[in-house]
Write a structure and sequence with these properties.
This protein has about 140 residues and is of the alpha/beta class. Helix content is about 45%, strand content about 15%. The protein has 6 helices and 5 strands. It has a 5-stranded parallel sheet, with helices on both faces. Strand 1, helix 1 and strand 2 form a beta-alpha-beta unit. Helix 1 packs across helix 6. The radius of gyration is 14 Å and the shape is globular.
């Protein structure tokens, strides 16, 4: 399955180990993570060589080609919110995951769109179960 992974880049990289876990888990289970750069520790340097238009076109192209989205939403990020809204408009299944102590936007937590699932996780064990359940629903 082609998956769009969404996570904060300019809004903070504190969740990088989680992005890397998600990306590794998905790949090890045979999925293609189109937006793998989110889990790359050098993404800020790479993106500094790109224009905002190039970043936008790349990410929207990945989203158009994706069959579902997994978004880590523990950090406030305008880009992640934009990508989630774009995925809703595309009509693909979306899994939003967050840590229990995160101050997640009401626009995510209160979303009633049938394609959006929001789950809280405490550790990678929880996260693995959540990912398994989401991917098994297709």
């Amino acid at each position: 399955m082609k998956i769009f992974l969404s996570g904060s880049i300019r809004g903070g990289r504190q969740m990088l180990p989680t992005y890397q876990f998600i990306c590794g888990y998905l790949r090890s289970n045979g999925h293609e993570v189109l937006s793998w750069h989110v889990a790359h520790d050098g993404v800020e340097e790479t993106e500094s060589l790109m224009s905002e238009s190039q970043i936008y076109e790349r990410d929207m192209g990945f989203l158009r080609a994706s069959e579902c989205m997994i978004a880590e939403v523990s950090l406030a990020s305008t880009g992640v919110g934009y990508e989630v809204c774009s995925a809703i408009n595309k009509g693909i299944p979306i899994l939003c995951v967050h840590r229990p102590d995160a101050n997640v936007s009401a626009m995510i937590l209160g979303n009633t769109n049938g394609n959006v699932t929001v789950k809280e996780y405490s550790d990678t064990g929880d996260l693995e179960v959540i990912l398994q359940e989401f991917l098994a629903s297709f």
